[in-house]
Amino acid sequence: MSQQPRSHQPRSTASGKSGSGKSGTGKPAQRRGQQPAAPRPGLVLDVDRSTPPVLLHSGEQFRLERLPAGRSRIIYPPEPLPGLEHPDEAIRDALLNPVDSDPLPAQLFSGMKLTIAFDDISLPLPKMRRPDIRQRVIEAVLDLAADAGVDDIHIIAALALHRRMTEAELRYCLGDRIYDAFAPRGQLYNHDAEDPEGMVMLGETRHGEEVQMSKRAAESDLIIYVNINLVSMDGGWKSTATGLSGYQGIRHHHNVKTMRNTKSFMDQENSELHRSNWRQGDVLKSAGINIFQIETTVNNDLFGDGPLSVLAKREWEWSAKDRATFLGVKTGLDRLPPSSRRRILHSWEAPYALTSVHAGEVEAVHKLTTAEVYKQQLVSVEGQTDIVLYGLPYVGPYNVNSIMNPILVMCLGLGYFFNMYKGKPVVREGGVLIMTHPTTNEFHPVHHPSYIDFFEQVLAETTDPIEIEQRFETSFATDEWYRHLYRTSHAYHGVHPFYMWYWGSHALEHLSQVIIVGGDPATVRRLGFRPASTLADALEMASDVLGPDPSITYVKNPPLGMADVT
Amino acid sequence: MKVQVPNPLNFLRGLGFPYTAAATPRGVEPVAQASKLGDFYETEWARSPLAQATRTAALETIGRAVTTAACRPEVRNSDRLDALRGPTIFVANHQSHLDTALLLTTIPKPWRQQLVVAAAADYFFDSRHSAALAAWAYGAVPMERNKVSRRSADRAAALLADGWSLLIFPEGGRSLDGWGLPHKGGAAYLSVKCNIPIVPIHLDGTGRVLRKGSKTLNPQTVVVNIGAPLMPEDDQDARSFAVTIEQAVAELADETSSDWWSARKRARTGQTPSLSGPEQDSWRRDWTSPEHKPRATESRSWPN
User: A264 preceded by cis ω (within 30°)?
Assistant: First the structure.
């Protein structure tokens, strides 16, 4: 492995959309007697001897680590943008004044077949405080549908191959009013991608990609899709072409080849995943599927002013109360059994605020939505690094109210976090990725049954994504037991762990080594990675590959930030 | 043999972050925190029934014992408030830290049972501990004295509207030399804005008991002279009403040092001695300062 030149020059830069390249952190958050100042953009901080230890998430625990001075930098995410002052009015306004589409009331009529689909529990992360955006939007839609005399309404959780949502989760997302009105009549349910009677094939793209969809949705006069765009990967044609699809359709873009040509899946312009979804969207349009897309964005406010607010602050801004809270929370979590830690953290409800809502034609809406996401998350970063460091939190898209198993650890680190870039990856090709997570050999038996077999049977033989795809995917995807659990229990589809592995295939190809600090050694080795007990050990191990004094970039996350690497 | 006691603060410092605060990294502009002190200090908790009950208990025991021992207060003319009802603004000259405790134990009931004290936001509310102590012990609310603050005024107006009475020292601080300082307009403004009567009070002698800057008590009798309530006239603005109030306190001072009738006559002819003393800056100003002159001992001629 050849050693490349050091990849970034130290510089303190306030960056983001409004970043000017000047030193500092932008405007102060608030001055006495004044309105709160504009939220500060992201910050790229060069580590020197005065830099305090930085906070890293490590699953359900936290670590404070001091980074080597002179060759490390920290990317802090931008501060939360202010939310819309009157979200319900904004939603109504979006429905009445949509983008490139007739107003929603003009598309509703008595006797029509209306399907409302919505993003499942994998968004947002962590779950937002009630009322959830989906409840607000769908209630507004139903108000208009009631005015128009629409009776035939189905509300579908567009979960593709994810696990079915429980009643409690549906009630949480949609509210009791909607649940009680529609669920007992069988008009509110989870999408079933394995229902032979409930799915329909709508055609193929020019690339031979099959397009599959929920039959009910396909036969509707109008599909209203209600989305939450937490990251720039979400939304657009991915909502309907993936969310309401099945294995036959999804396999055409959820595969190793597509993911390796997706750089990154957070950057739609350079994402083969999105191009494939957009092609499938064209087929939907050609098939006469009428979609009214409603996309929403939320700010970065995961922790609000509550007891966890310290987690969103920059370390040198921690007050005495913050430090005491942190020490208390850390000490408490360290001493609790994992199940209790998990229960406490998964009960956290983020005080997200709605920052935008757009409705209308899918692609036109999605352009506006993506701009809003970038406005919140982009941080300008100059140059790549030799080592990228992530602290993995307790929750990812696929372990809400569940356990983050080793495969989800891989997916979160090498899939989601690694891909939170635009332009170039934060770490150079041949670099090392270090992440902190306990990575125990623990699985949720109800939610992730096929993951257990994937870990025990597939990863025991190989970690090569292509070999995994060729040798094992079909048997898992078509396994009757997994299919049964997916349809009747609350299990992810049999093929889902494969997709998690593919999600990290671009990173696996790009990196020379992956090290997990604090990870269970046997489990980490099964993943094909190297365990390290401390960050210092991990950096030492990385130096074996990269040479002495490699440059390090720690991407502090959450709250979410996305590196715009030039 | 000397035993060295370990300093817990040094121990904490040795532990470093997060036991102690982290330094702001170079090149990063520190955040200006939204202050919760000064004018922004929230005192609502100090008006809760529990805080009020403990405050009253402390004032009626410790507070009264200290003020009685130090000041031997002689309250005069409290009958002038017999016809007064409802929330009131009490204004007094200010010579000593004892003034507040003295007034909180001598202002007649029922006003002192629901009384807040306007206290300098930059002095009493500059740290969390002193702010909490002032809010609890005196029922103090922060008042900006160096600049116009809508927040201070609005807070005081809201409290008056809620039925609270207000004690305010319009000089804005303790006298340096025993002579009074020019009155600020806050009390008059609130009275005009809220249509609340002003009760002027003159304190004579607290500066001699515990003058500004002194840490030694010099116990002696103090006179608390309560004036007749004042209401702004229909078209009177706050500025001219402030002059009226200052004049009323000056007349009370004259009354204390002489007698009611003599003071009245001087007031009618515009000869009431000024509270701020002679204008010249010489030994004669200090010589004639109320803080230095012996207390008037002659009895008042009329009425008694």
Answer: yes
